[in-house]
Amino acid sequence: MGTPTTSPAPERTVRLRELGPARRGSRPDEVVIAVSPAFADFFTKTIVDVPHAEVLRQLLAGIEEQGVTARIVRVRDTADLAAIAHTAAQLSGSGIAVGVLARGTTMIHQKDLPRLSNLELFPQSPLLDAQVFRRIGSNAAQYAKGESPEPVPTRNDQMARPRWQAKAALLHLKEVECIEAGRDPVEVEPAFELSRAG
Amino acid sequence: MPDRARLVVGVDIGNSTTEACLAAVAPDRTVSYLGTDLTRTTGVKGTPDNTDGVLTAVRGALRRAGRAAAELDAVLLNEATPVISGLAMETITETIITESTMIGHNPATPGGQGLGVGTTVSLTELDEIDPGPPVVCVVPHGWDFEDIASTVNAAVGRGVDVVAAVLAGDDAVLVANRLTRPVPVVDEVAAVEKVPLGMLAAVEVAAAGYTIRTLSNTYGLATVFGLDPDQTRHVSPVARALTGNRSAVVVRTPSGDVTDRRIPVGTLELRGSGKTLRVDLATGAEEIMDAVARAQPLEDAHGEPGTHVGGMLAQVRDTMADVVGQDGEEAGSPVEIAINDVLAVDTFVPAEVRGGLAGEMHLENAVALAAMVSTSRSRMRSVAERVAEELGVATLIGGVEGKMAVRGALTTPGVDRPVAVLDLGGGSTDAAELDREGRDTAVHVAGAGELVTKLIDSELALDDREVAENIKRSPLAKVESFFHVRHEDGTVQFFDEPLPSHVFARVVTLAPEGPTPIPTRHGLDHVRQIRREAKRRVFVVNAVRALRQVAAGGNLRTLDFVVLLGGSALDFEIPEMIADALAGYGIVCGTGNVLGTEGPRNAVASGLVAAHAAAAP
Amino acid sequence: MSLSPTIELRTEDYPLSVNRPDLLATPTGKPITALTMEAVVSGELSPDDLRIAPETLLLQAQLAEAAGRPQLAANFRRAAEMTAIPDAEVLAMYNALRPRKSSGPQLAELADRLENAYSAPECAALVREAAEVYARRNLLARPPAADHSATDA
Amino acid sequence: MRGDADAMTTTQPRRSRRTEILENRPVNLDGFVEEWPEKGLVAMDSDYDPAPSVRVENGRIVELDGTTRDQFDFMDTFIADHAIDVASAERANAIPSEEIARMLIDTHVSRNEVLAVTRGLTPAKILDVVELMNVVEIMQGMQKMRARRTPANQGHSTSARDNPIQVAADAAEGAMRGFAELETTLGVVRYAPLVAIALQVGAQVGRGGVLTQCALEEATELELGMRGITAYAETISVYGTEPVFVDGDDTPWSKAFLASAYASRGIKMRFTSGTGSEVQMGNAEGKSMLYLEIRCILMAKGAGVQGLQNGSISCIGVPGAVPGGIRAVAAENLVASMVDLECASGNDQSFSHSAMRRTARLMPQLLPGTDFVCSGYSGVPNADNMFAGSNFDTEDYDDWNTIQRDLQVDGGLRHVREAEILQVRNKAARALQALFSHLDLPPITDEEVEAATYADSSNDYPLRDVLADLKGAQAVMDRGITGLDLVRGLEATGFHDVAENLLAVLRQRVSGDLLQTSAVLTAELTPLSAINDPNDYQGPGTGYRLQGERWEQLKKLRHVTSATDPETEVG
């Protein structure tokens, strides 16, 4: 293994500034990232404490590394991941979108798919770390380019149930509370800031 | 001479299907075919378990023809010569990099472009070095792309001449996009900590769609590193190994090297026609097949014990012993099994390079061997006895399969003697010939559908026989959207219903059940080329080889008609590949249509009837 | 169905396979005692001989009723009606009852088919009841949604 | 940047050594959350559950728990029209809840007398009753209300590689150890036909009459059942709110139809539900987990299905994380039993990192006994458990047996000597080998039989040719192989006793005896259900007692020092 891994790097925070109503993109080389109502808002980190700043940064980096551009939208009127990702796919110039919930559950969607279907789903939020988010971004970008990426390996842990099942339910309920019915998706711009962790 | 038509049924017990052909043989020996049937073979071919399948097929044919079992005069069984085949594969070359001198793994997304030559320095020491000669920055694991970029930018700002970077993570584009002064960046170097520091190194990245020009050129390397002719000779393998890459790193160390080594795998010993020939497996398929041809008819083959070849043949023998022994009574010990034919095929196996820093893969040469034995013939007797008992009808064991098949093939419209058949099976390719005078010969050669599957599996590094089998059976397509695919011939097909999500953007096989994705990063053309090449190397080579053995004087031009039979004769491209190869010999070749209705099926069963009629008293 | 059993069963008759094998027959008319190994080996039995007969389900319904389980008995009576429906159609009918899979008229048609083609009034009643509730709870098939071509400029 | 990392190691407050030790206890790997009753994140005792009420007009319930008929959602409608006995509803609901709760534990009140009341109760009334009971009283209630007198247990037999030989061998061992039902499922669904056959053969080798099932999507599960390859079905899920039910693509009517479909093919079937599923899916409508589960139980009752698998099941992490959650889980099992359904009572999913907590969670089912104490004790190591792990697995066999012996309770299992286990494992593998060969399915080698005899997990078996197996599995479906073919094949290959056992199971489909509540087949191949083995507990000395021959069996453990010759061990 050699080198030590980065010890607690300066933690980044992110604010999502609203730019206006989300519009349909025309660039075929873009991926839209759609975040849920409470993402980087009521909540600041996923169920396993991955900062939302890091989630976004890694998704964006995965997309950029593939030479694809990204836009971020916030969906306000639902906390249903399939609906969020599907809405974003309709807005995406390439038809590819990544939806992500505050607790970390993530999905890659495509505009022609039925809402309840998806290209890749990462249902086990406790098992998603920065590296997985990077790979999700990268895969989404590769789909946008018409390439066939290897699906990000899904992990499984039998003991995730006793540890995380109830917290996941709680986080979901909180997220549902943040829903603003009837509000259309908005385009947002991330402002990352460095801060001292702990 | 009987004064009425005799009702007979020919039955062919194959490895997977049992086929029956019911016919009336008139006193003048003319044959009227009445009906056929096909069922699954019960038990291992050539064992008493076959009886049930035979009865099912006979009854089925009778039912279709509206005849009763009591009317039957004879059941004709084939003399099944169970041919069992085995496969093995061995790599015969390996590539070794010493002293971590080269990185040529072709990451999907390198950053920047151009050539940078300088001394390797770790990123952790970049802020300590003074401006001076050019440096190549080596970035260990765990660094965030923004931190890498700002560290390099700070150094450049101080006047340090950073000309390239080598990264552990998949960050090249991210870093390159953030550099104040663009340089080539190579990433995903998993063992980056092994890159020697303080050495002269060259990093080259080509523009998207291009390949590197300098580091893949021996004289380019000589120029970059200022090599003398002797040293230049030494680095030529490095240049060759980097050919075709979009990016590469070469580090100059005192004795760094890339070698392409032959693995001593041992010799193959072939016994036949009164002589024993030895051939080094590492010499490749051509030499081996040459030796096999000289030892015809082959009596047995052995590998030098303790070598890879020994292991390969032992493995083949073990598989065959298992199959032969499956019935319990005939348990063959591996030693007793004599190998009657060997097919060697050159292939390649994508293998990880030893000493590589980034999991570099190299296509290593390998040899695949298919071997074949014929087993005991005695047990058809007991099948015949049981059938006779169940149906109360005389049951006769007819001629050798291949010879019967050729008679069945003659019922294909437009075929005449001299005719040869090629039965393209799973384990072996069988040929038989019937000349103008009615003399017949038959041979079995090793290698058929299963070997094709194995070649596809290993050459595409699939490690999944089911996927390989799918590739073999069906044409390819690329799913370009949820509503259309582009076929391998370039045509586009549209769909009204969206395709399933798991095939999106993938290269797929178009099986009848629907598109199935191939888990590979290779493009459609590459997969297609490997599929066709595997079929050519097995079926086309074997077609020619087997036909030579049955053709008079080994001369293919003595054959007029070749009829393709067996499961692989239904393949979407093998028949035309064989036909193309035989066209040069003036041979008419095509897929059989037995009785004008059965396609490449039922040849043996029909042939049994024909032979019986011809020989009738 | 006109299978009104004339036998009065009591819970003491359970298990029928032990205490009243005389009442049990296969849908093909064989007594349950004919389901022997000899019959299996000789090939006399077909998979149809191992299905339950509607009459048997009605007997079990009687037992369930006698044991104080009216809902279980009603289930067995519906099951008795369903024995006549081929496997694939049973599954198709089940799928038709899933939420938003069928329109009101489609469910009405399904109920009629159960009643007329299969003499299955109890099953038909269940379907009609579902149709009424689905209509009230907005669970009938919606008119075909705007298709994807609308989103595909 | 990296240089800053050092600055981060600021001094931390000094920690107690004891806190450190406690911090490292497995129980602290479990997750716990505070209640949030407004959203339904509460086990029971919530202020937001409806108050009980019922009103009948013209033989029809027109008001249920504070909701009038025009406001009924489909659960209310189905429960009002099918589950509740209209004739007794108003009378029963008028009885004070305290009185009904006391009836449940009063040894002078028979089970039937309780049922005469419970059949008319509304969901909120039932909730009101069980909320009055502490966990010991819940156990007392369960002891009396369980439908079948004799308790039993159910096992899982699965394989991480879907290896049929492993499934057969572990099924045989599990059957011999005492499971009355065995359940399997798949990693690769296409393997199902081979694995279902293996489970059936293994089970009948281990102990004739064990019932088997293969959990799959409805169509395939039903087809395997119709063909007689499996004997019962269980994974037919129902939910407590309308939106979640619809999300599961079903309604009470579609499920009721499916229940009759199973019965029409002579196949035993139970529904599955459990506390926590609705709040997990974010649609609890502000009701407590137990209230919603009671609606599921009554829906099942109304559908006329004979039984229910409940006890939170796959959502156990949710009630497990809130206060009183495991009490609620015990209560939901009791409610299933007190409305006269067979109850397969959970304990079938990985529940806790703490062995102590795992055991405690079991007590409310083990001590009073239920129809199936576990609805899936893992008869394979949990790593091989394709139901995502159970609360107990093969490593716990000896602990389980010891607890049964310590407390003199019957949890359905027993200690079996190694020699006997090796014998049945070997026989199961050989029977499957012979059957596969007879049916021309992918061969099983002697090496695999040998491995199966001595193996623990899927890693101990030679790898199978998966492609050949999948083709074989497809062939089972294409060729229409049925249970009858299995009987014929076993008989033809000399496994006469196994063939007879399987034929007996198939014959029961014709009799319909296994369709009655809580039915199992005894070792004598006789149906035993709540009809001929009704629970007659009415206080000390009555009901099921662990005594006689069965108690002698359960006294045996792996190591028990002999009293006559203390230098040796008995057993």
UniProtKB/TrEMBL annotation, chain A:
Transmembrane segments: none annotated. It comes from the Bacteria. Pfam families: Dehydratase_MU (PF02288). SUPFAM superfamilies: B12-dependent dehydatase associated subunit. Coiled coil: none annotated. This is Propanediol dehydratase medium subunit.
Automatic annotation (TrEMBL), chain B:
The lineage of its organism: Bacteria, Bacillati, Actinomycetota, Actinomycetes, Geodermatophilales. This is Diol dehydratase reactivase alpha subunit. It comes from Geodermatophilus ruber. Residues 279-611 form the Diol dehydratase reactivase ATPase-like domain. Residues 97-258 form the DD-reactivating factor swiveling domain. InterPro entries: ATPase_NBD, DDR_dom, DDR_swiveling, DDRA, DDRA_swiveling_dom_sf, NA-bd_OB-fold. It comes from the Bacteria.
Automatic annotation (TrEMBL), chain C:
SUPFAM superfamilies: Diol dehydratase, gamma subunit. This is Propanediol dehydratase small subunit. It comes from Geodermatophilus ruber.
Automatic annotation (TrEMBL), chain D:
It comes from the Bacteria. Signal peptide: none annotated. Transmembrane segments: none annotated. SUPFAM superfamilies: Cobalamin (vitamin B12)-dependent enzymes (SSF51703). Residues 15-564 form the Diol/glycerol dehydratase large subunit domain. Gene3D superfamilies: Diol/glycerol dehydratase, large subunit. One of its GO terms (molecular function) is hydro-lyase activity. This is Propanediol dehydratase large subunit.
